[in-house]
Amino acid sequence: MTPPPLDDVDLRLLQLLQADCSRSNQALADAAGLSPATCHRRVRSLREGGYIEKEVAVLSPQKLASALRSEEHTSELQS
Fold this sequence. Notes:
mainly alpha, 65% helix, 79 residues, elongated
């Protein structure tokens, strides 16, 4: 089954989600100029059509490195 073709609204939703997939449906709808119900339906369709494979977290290497160094230092002190 081939996914439905994308229109300008779908492309805008994908652009917004790619920039920040953690925003609420209401915030996404507002940014795209849609009602929340229409936004939810379209995003669901994009997921079901395979346009959205997964949502991921982008981690901060600097924060992680600092946290890991801090954890190592704490472990050394406890030994």
